[in-house]
Give the backbone structure.
Amino acid sequence: MAGYRVGPDYIEAHRAFVAVGADEHGGRVLGFYSLVLVPPELDLLFVADEAQGRGIGRLLVAHMQSEARAAGIDRVKVVSHLPAEDFYHRVGAVRTGTALANPPAVPWDRPEFEFRIPSE
């Protein structure tokens, strides 16, 4: 997502959370997601390339589920980038359909998922 920018207007409008590295990562942003409450959607979940495979995405998803549960949400939609499809399966999301391409903004079809958020 080189060149993609999340600005103050986006952060003010959505619940945004960041995973920041410690130790060898020196406070760098390693991951990010936002939770849109209405309608419930996991938006812009990213983990830095060099940080993938270390459980950061899994931690961000668990955090999102906790935030959704606290907000009284029982389902959260995700429109995924195609290469992330396996990740969403591994963290418990259920495939629900396909978001069709919307050129020129998004020229490819994308898998849609849903997280079911159980109450505790």
Q: What stands out?
A: The chain has one domain: 8-116.
